[in-house]
Amino acid sequence: MAGLKRGWWPLALLTLILIAPELAPHAATDVVGLPYSTQGLLGTDHLGRDVLSRLMHGGRPMVLTSLAAAALGTGAGTLIGLVAAWWRPFVLRPWDAVAAVPGILVLLLVLTAMPNRAGIVFAVALASVPLSARVVHAAAAQVIGKAHVEHAKVRGERTAWILGREVLPLIGTTVLADLGLRFVMAVYLVAAAGFLGLSTMSSDWGLLVVEALPGAALQPVALLAPVVGIAVVAVSANRVADRVGEWA
C-alpha cells in the first residue's frame, strides 16, 4: 500500500488491465442485451455486446502489442545510437529518412505487406527507432569522452564491452524514459490501427472507438470508455517510467 502511495499505482493499474480478460463478466462477442441499452455497468454497443467486457478483453492485447513494439524500437534505437556515438553520426543518416515519414504512414505501408499483429509490432517499432537512436546518441556522446571510458580503451577492452559496461549504465535512466515515450507512441499507433480497421484484435480499443461513433448520441459511454482507457494507459506508462528512472 505504501508503494502505491509513493506513485506506484499506475503499475497496479497496468497489471489490472493485463488480467482483466480473466475477470470480464462476458466474452467479447457475447450479445447480452438490446443495442445501445444501459444494461451492465457501461451499457451495450451497436450489436448489444457488453461494453465493459469488450473493454476488458481489448486492454491486454493492446498493452502487450504496444510494449513489444516499444521494446523492439527502443532496443534497436539504443544499439544504433551507441554505435553512432562511438563511431560516426553518419550512421543515423538513413534513419533520418525514416523519421521524415509520419508514423501512421509507416503503419499503413507495413500492414499492406504484413496484415497481422506482427506487422503492427514491426511497423510501430520501425517508426520509433529514429527518435530513440537520436536520444541515445545525444546521451552517449556525453559519456564516451569520460575518463573511465578512455581507461577502458587503454586496457584494450572490446568495443561491445565498453559500450555495454561503461556507457550504457550511465545512460540507463535516459533509455528508460525514452522507452516510456515510445510506449505511449505505440499505444496511439496501435489504437490507430484498430480505428482504421487494420488490427486483427476483435476488441481493440481503437476499433471500439470507431464502432461507437455512429451511436455516440445514444450511447456516449461506449465511445468515452475506450478513449479514456487509452489516455489512462498512456499516463500510467509515463508514471511507471518516471518511478523506475528515479529508482535507477
Give the topology, please:
Blueprint: H1 2-23, H2 51-86, H3 93-99, H4 103-113, H5 117-144, H6 147-154, H7 159-167, H8 172-195, H9 205-212, H10 220-247
If you had to describe this structure to a student in words, what would you say it looks like?
- The chain has a single domain (47-247), classed as MetI-like (MetI-like fold, Orthogonal Bundle), CATH 1.10.3720.10.
- It is built from ten helices and no strands.
- It has helices spanning 2-23, 51-86, 93-99, 103-113, 117-144, 147-154, 159-167, 172-195, 205-212, 220-247.
- The chain is elongated.
- The mean pLDDT is 87.
Mean pLDDT, nearest integer? 87
Provide the CATH superfamily. MetI-like
Which strand-content bin applies to the residues? under 5%
Biggest beta-sheet profile:
none
How many helices in DSSP terms?
10
Overall geometric form: elongated
Order of helices and strands: HHHHHHHHHH
Structural class category? mainly alpha
CA-CA gap between termini: 21 Å
CATH topology: MetI-like fold
What's the total count of β strands? 0
Q: Percentage of helical residues? A: over 70%
The CATH architecture is Orthogonal Bundle
